[in-house]
């Protein structure tokens, strides 16, 4: 896949830096508080967000930022510096899973459908290859069509659906598991 075939106009992503932390957590906390896209039940802040940040200082588990004002997506927004972010996290603490990482991707709602999700996913998959991961996994709430479609566009394959594994806002939630084998052997 090339950037142009994916409709990516300008992949000017960067690694997150500590000054991004409030905006990164604000983007996530909006999703935690208002949607079932995150299975967290309460916002992260203070020590929890610092702990989360520290866990992503390992180069195998980066946080990539799509800056607001970058590319053609967000002209005229000087109130926001982070339009979206994506990260890799360990799938498991057991060592044999060391080359498997889990994808997270979050774009501010006011920046949706401007190609930032594609740019972040492209950057994340590229970085995952560069740091030596072999498999990416993703868990997506089963009604999250936008996220499912985005994963499909990058070749993620659905492994299956875990039924009723989540409960939030008094709803039982199903989760679709997806995988991307980075050496192409799907
Ligand atoms: C999923 C998400 C990251 C997509 O980000 P985005 O910047 O809006 O995505 P893009 O503009 O790059 O869209 C890429 C493609 O994904 C698909 N897509 C994105 N949002 C979609 C939606 N709401 N419905 C259907 N398809 C969608 C489309 O195929 C789209 O291409 P198109 O715009 O040319 O039709 C974004 O909607 C988001 O942050 N959602 C809330 C958080 C979330 O669900 N994160 C994933 C948790 S698993």
UniProtKB/TrEMBL annotation:
<keyword id="KW-0012">Acyltransferase</keyword>
<keyword id="KW-0808">Transferase</keyword>
<dbReference type="GO" id="GO:0016747">
    <property type="term" value="F:acyltransferase activity, transferring groups other than amino-acyl groups"/>
</dbReference>
<dbReference type="InterPro" id="IPR000182">
    <property type="entry name" value="GNAT_dom"/>
</dbReference>
<dbReference type="Pfam" id="PF00583">
    <property type="entry name" value="Acetyltransf_1"/>
</dbReference>
<dbReference type="InterPro" id="IPR016181">
    <property type="entry name" value="Acyl_CoA_acyltransferase"/>
</dbReference>
<protein>
    <submittedName>
        <fullName>N-acyltransferase YncA</fullName>
        <ecNumber>2.3.1.-</ecNumber>
    </submittedName>
</protein>
<feature type="domain" description="N-acetyltransferase">
    <location>
        <begin position="11"/>
        <end position="182"/>
    </location>
</feature>
């Amino acid at each position: 896949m090339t950037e142009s075939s994916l409709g990516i106009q300008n992949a000017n992503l960067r690694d997150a830096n500590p000054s991004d932390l409030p905006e990164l957590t604000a983007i996530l906390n909006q999703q935690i508080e208002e949607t079932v896209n995150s299975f967290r039940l309460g916002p992260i802040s203070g020590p929890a967000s610092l702990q989360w940040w520290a866990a992503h200082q390992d180069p195998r588990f980066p946080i990539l930022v799509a800056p607001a004002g970058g590319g053609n997506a967000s002209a005229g927004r000087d109130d926001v510096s982070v339009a979206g972010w994506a990260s890799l996290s360990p799938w498991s603490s057991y060592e044999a899973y060391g080359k498997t990482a889990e994808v997270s991707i979050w774009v501010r709602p006011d920046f949706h459908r401007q190609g930032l999700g594609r740019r972040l996913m492209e950057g994340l998959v590229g970085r995952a290859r560069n740091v030596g991961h072999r498999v990416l996994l993703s868990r997506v709430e089963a009604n999250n069509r936008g996220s499912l479609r985005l994963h499909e566009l990058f070749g993620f394959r659905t492994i299956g659906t875990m039924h009723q594994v989540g409960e939030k806002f008094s709803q039982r939630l199903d989760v679709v598991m997806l995988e991307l084998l980075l050496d192409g052997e799907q």
